[in-house]
Amino acid sequence: MRKLPLVVLTALFILFTAHDAHALCVKVAKANLRTGPGTSYDVVWEIFKYMPLVKVGVSVSGKWYAVKDVDGDVTWIYRDLVTSGYHCAVVKTETVNVRTGPGTRYRKSTISPAKQYYSFKVEKRKGSWVKVKDEWGGRGWIHRHFLFIR
């Protein structure tokens, strides 16, 4: 019951700062998405490096961001775990082939296939193809249709 006023204030703050939405990427190996702005809130999802998120609000303290994920769910992440310094992508379909070049005529790369929720750093775009890099340095090309990019 003590958290109710904080949750209400935080929700109001999100509503009034929603115009400030912008892309973020997880910059650490693992991060937790939580139900509220603090470590005392439940963990909803553990995510990994390069997961793209959309900032939709900020906690009253300014230390936590309300973020929307690939599924459209809004949760909270600590601000020091994310960056807006580059773009990221995540596979939004069950699986997708990762190619050695920007097209289906190229062979599958060594990181193919990529499964749903596998995240990447975006390195380059060529038409409707996106060159990506995973957290271990594996690279390849994925058609834009199969990715949620921020």
Written account of the structure:
The chain is mainly beta and 150 residues long. The chain folds into two domains: 3-83, SH3 Domains (SH3 type barrels, Roll), CATH 2.30.30; 88-149, SH3 Domains (SH3 type barrels, Roll), CATH 2.30.30. It is 10% helix and 43% strand. The protein has one helix and 14 strands. The protein has one helix at 3-17, and strands at 22-26, 30-34, 43-48, 52-58, 64-68, 74-78, 82-83, 88-91, 95-96, 114-115, 119-126, 129-133, 139-143, 147-149. The protein has a five-stranded antiparallel sheet. Strands 13-12-11-8-14 form a five-stranded antiparallel sheet, with no helix packed on it. The chain has a two-stranded antiparallel ribbon with strand order 2-3. A hairpin with a 2-residue loop joins strand 11 and strand 12 (129-133). The termini are far apart. 29% of the residues are buried.
- Overall 3D shape: elongated
Radius of gyration: 17 Å
* Number of strand segments: 14
CATH fold call of the largest domain:
SH3 type barrels
Low-confidence stretches: 12-20
- What is the second-level CATH architecture of the largest domain? Roll
User: What is the number of independent domains?
Assistant: 2
Structural class label: mainly beta
CATH class of the largest domain: Mainly Beta
Tell me about the largest β-sheet: 5 strands, antiparallel
DSSP strand content: 35-45%
Question: What value does the average pLDDT take?
Answer: 90
Helix content: 10-25%
CATH superfamily of the largest domain: SH3 Domains
Order of helices and strands: HEEEEEEEEEEEEEE
Count of DSSP H/I helices: 1
End-to-end gap: 36 Å
